[in-house]
Design a protein that fits this description.
Length: 593
């Protein structure tokens, strides 16, 4: 009888847990549907006369707007968050330039947690907008470096009188796991090629600080990116680079807002109500400011183009993995299917591959590269590099007919490595688990985590890594018209900024996605008779909701919101378990803080 009571209690407990989980998800979906009903994609937004395009870029800006059911919800307030992608932001700015109902652009900025190349593309587009004669104004209660770099393109910059401007220079902090692994008695067995001294992705596993080679490349990389930022601010604010560096060195602008005004970095110290009064004057609206967000403005217009000639922009964003998966990363099966469809579609006259990837699986990179090679045989393939196109991201880019990069794109990182955890000490000594084995062949237990690699097994893996590196450098040499020995000399895992990569032959031209599309049009001889299509085609909102029910998307979204700028440390720990096997991956991420 007691047994049946236990069974019934367990059954009821499980049922209650399932019901709670169900109703929580129903609540989340209901909130999303409620938000959707207010701003359905089918609903056309009407732009009122004398409106301003309102831009608040306080989120990680993806290359493309994605209907992520959980990524657009504030889990504290259940409100809908802005998540307009770079593609729609740029289209909105272009549309607003000639829209008679848009008087100008108003930005509220504090911090923009996204990478430098994305900021560069938006800033460049805003500079084009200014040529229309319409205004750009910006207000911040405080400005981070990323926010101020964006704000510096504005005609007028306003700062809260009690705020501050955080200009302090760039630094990259790398998290090292060596002592953690030592405490857990876990050995991360590293296999690197002999010429991969800059491939520092594995250094956190066996060092507690940067190697001299890594420090050398970081100094060069940060210097180039910081130089680009200072150059931009200097040109728009008419302040010398030397003076900006002096202010950064002395943390001169974080003490009080008045100093930012005194040194000419802002045009006024205003409270929000005063800013609104200024906007009323600029728009000629005495009572109410007509402000329209990026999300809503994108619904106010449709670009109609009857042309049958298509330039396909294929987005390759995220880490590179084998097989099939979701749209948040690059999976070889998903992306090759998209590329193949574009190749076989007679309406597609040229392909622009938009790469925003730090790399990943070497095998998956090779598979994707093969599909691009086949496509290049029948139509132009142009590469546009975003924030990252490094390691595996460069592997798939190397044979493009022409490669475009932003000055601050992180690229190169031509190198490979393998990581193979040995958890014998942890399992045996820390938690008391032991293992025994029966095997038919000498190396039948190859790949186990409960025993270290034998010298023979390590040597075989070393052969694999050396061959993969040779394949990588050979591909780059062939694609870029360079000697393989030269590719090795600029490779060895070293990461380059786009502005430096063009000088050593890894990139053809500095430019953004629009420049790459324009070149593809020219290469395909399309004139003005073409339209741009974006691939892979977006899944509808409700399909993504149903898919997300079986994935931890909501957990990831919550972690991003809670951890903020520290989220990438969490990702680094997550990668401890993901990045095993042979990898072609960039060693770090770089975000302006």
């Amino acid at each position: 009888m007691k047994f049946y009571k236990v069974v019934i209690a367990a059954f009821i407990g499980t049922l209650i847990a399932l019901l709670i989980n169900f109703f929580v998800k129903v609540g989340v979906v209901s909130a999303m549907i409620a938000g959707l009903s207010k701003s359905s994609p089918e609903t056309t937004t009407v732009v009122k006369p004398n409106s301003v395009l309102f831009m608040k870029l306080n989120y990680e800006i993806q290359d493309r707007t994605v209907d992520n059911p959980f990524g657009t919800i504030n889990f504290n307030t259940m409100e809908t968050l802005e998540n307009t992608g770079l593609n729609e932001i740029l289209r909105n700015i272009e549309q607003a330039k000639t829209d008679p109902n848009i008087k100008g652009i108003y930005m509220e900025l504090s911090s923009i947690p996204t990478s430098t190349a994305t900021l560069e593309e938006i800033r460049s587009k805003l500079a084009e907008f200014k040529e229309s004669g319409k205004f750009i104004v910006c207000y911040g209660e405080a400005y981070s470096q990323s926010a101020y770099y964006m704000a510096s393109i504005a005609d007028r910059i306003w700062l809260n009188p009690e705020g501050m401007l955080d200009l302090h220079g760039m630094a990259s902090q790398i998290m090292f796991y060596k002592h953690l692994l030592d405490k857990l008695d876990i050995e991360m067995q590293i296999v690197r090629g002999p010429n991969n001294r800059f491939k520092s992705a594995v250094e956190p596993y066996f060092l507690d600080k940067m190697s001299e080679a890594n420090r050398e490349q970081m100094d060069k990389l940060l210097g180039t990116v910081w130089g680009q930022i200072l150059k931009g601010i200097s040109e728009t604010r008419n302040i010398s680079v030397e003076k900006l560096n002096e202010l950064a060195d002395n943390l001169e602008l974080i003490t009080n807002a008045q100093k930012a005004l005194d040194y000419g970095l802002v045009d006024g110290l205003l409270f929000k109500d005063q800013v609104l009064d200024e906007l009323k004057n600029l728009t000629g609206n005495n009572k109410k400011i007509n402000a329209i967000s990026n999300t809503n403005y994108a619904k106010s217009y449709k670009i109609k183009n009857p042309s049958k000639n298509e330039v396909a922009v294929i987005y390759a964003s995220g880490q590179i993995f084998d097989g099939k998966g979701n749209d948040d990363n690059i999976y070889s099966e998903n992306l090759t299917k998209t590329i193949r469809k574009a190749r076989e579609d007679n309406n597609v006259k040229a392909v622009v591959l938009r790469v925003n990837s730090p790399g990943g699986s070497a095998v998956a990179s090779a598979i994707i590269g093969r599909e691009l090679d086949l496509t290049k045989e029948v139509k132009p393939v142009i590469v546009s590099m975003g924030n990252y196109a490094a390691s595996g991201g460069y592997w798939i880019s190397a044979k493009g007919d022409r490669i475009f990069a932003d000055p601050t794109t992180l690229t190169g990182s031509i190198g490979v490595f393998g990581t193979f955890p040995n958890m014998k000490g942890f399992l045996n000594d820390k938690i008391g688990l032991t293992f025994d084995v029966v095997k038919t062949n000498e190396n039948a237990d190859f790949g186990t985590i409960v025993e270290p690699l034998t010298p023979f097994q390590y040597a075989k893996l070393q052969e694999n890594v050396v061959k993969t590196y040779d394949d990588f450098t050979s591909r780059v040499a062939e694609g870029r018209g360079l000697r393989q020995s030269y590719v090795d000399s600029i490779g060895q895992g070293r990461v380059w900024a786009g502005a430096d990569a063009i000088e050593i032959g890894l990139v053809d031209q500095l430019g953004d996605l629009e420049d790459a599309i324009a070149y593809a049009v020219q290469k395909a001889n399309l004139g003005s008779d073409y339209k741009v299509v974006e691939l892979p085609k977006e899944k509808d909102f409700f399909t993504r909701i149903m898919e997300s029910m079986n994935k931890p998307d909501e957990i990831e979204a919550i972690m991003k919101q809670k951890l903020g700028v520290y989220y990438h440390y969490y990702v680094g720990l997550e990668n401890l378990q993901k990045n095993t096997g042979i990898q072609a991956r960039m060693p770090f991420d770089l975000v302006i803080q």
